[in-house]
Amino acid sequence: MKNTFGLKKIIEKTDSAILNKKPEIQVVRNHYKKWNLGIEFSGGSSFVADDPLGINNSANYYLSTPSNSSGGTGSYTNFPSSKTRSSVAFIVGAFLEKNISPEHKISFGINYKYFSTSNKIGNKIDSAQTAYYAANSTHNYRSNFSYLELPVSLKLQLGKNKYLPVYWQFGINISQLISSNALQFKSNPSLYYNDNSLFNKTQFGFSTSISAFLFAKQKTSIAIGPYFYYGASRLAGKGLYQNKHFNFIGLRSEILFLKK
């Protein structure tokens, strides 16, 4: 009887402990609320053209046979401008990225973008001003364009590989021209000169890339792949860059610092 009474007490205490035990709250970290920091670098070539692929843009410059015209007090010679050729370009910046679904990511960033073009020009007219003859165009001149860019992009995972995931990225880019030494062209008389007021300072464009991510399971992952940018806005309404669009093709790499 004594043992039975003791066993009954033990059972009652156990039942009471079970009933009074507070349920454990399982803390599930919200994977989609995390913003991860990343840095990116793209290097390649930029060029201007009337179409996205630059089909109508020749890589070779030319000088046609000059034409003589006479005025009231003398004569002058007209030379056409040389072709604007592709040149080096790069983009460097930082971004914040987070998952919005298991296969989708969204990111916001800020970039410094450097594009350039190249022309054949003649001798400098006056050392006190930026003007060059179009005749005897034997000198290479690189026109530099510096932009501050704000990209917004969406990434979509291609396939289900978790150890070497591949993402397709599509972005919308808004950029502001902050400096340039680009030359314009005047046909009468034939010369090159600097006038940044002819440029459309604010540019709107689209970008796309395909990247493979290395060390995707590590705290720091690295991605690399081809990158293409098309400027939807015209560079200028008149001048040497009239109705032209900037294009860029190259390789893009990024380093993403994942929060664990």
What topology does this entry show?
Blueprint: H1 2-20, E1 36-49, E2 67-70, E3 75-78, E4 85-101, E5 104-121, E6 131-133, E7 139-158, E8 166-180, E9 183-187, E10 190-194, E11 202-214, E12 220-231, E13 245-257
Antiparallel strand pairs: 1-4, 1-13, 2-3, 4-5, 5-7, 6-10, 7-8, 8-11, 9-10, 11-12, 12-13
Unreliable sequence segments = 58-76
* Overall pLDDT confidence: 81
What number of structural domains do the residues give? 1
Q: For the record, give the distance between the C-alpha atoms at the N and C termini, rounded to a whole number.
A: 59 Å
Number of helical elements:
1
Class of secondary structure makeup: mainly beta
SSE ordering: HEEEEEEEEEEEEE
What level of helicity do the residues show? under 10%
CATH T-level topology: Porin
Largest sheet: 8 strands, antiparallel, barrel
Count of strand segments: 13
Q: What is the CATH first-level class name? A: Mainly Beta
Task: Assess the beta-strand content as a share of residues.
Answer: over 45%
Word description of this protein:
By secondary structure, the protein is mainly beta. It has one domain (34-56, 74-257): Porin, CATH 2.40.160. It is built from one helix and 13 strands, in the order H-E-E-E-E-E-E-E-E-E-E-E-E-E. Strands 1-4-5-7-8-11-12-13 form an eight-stranded antiparallel barrel. The protein has a three-stranded antiparallel sheet with strand order 6-10-9, with no helix packed on it. It has a two-stranded antiparallel sheet with strand order 2-3. A hairpin with a 2-residue loop joins strand 9 and strand 10 (190-194). The protein is elongated and about 105 Å long. Mean pLDDT is 81; it is low at 58-76.
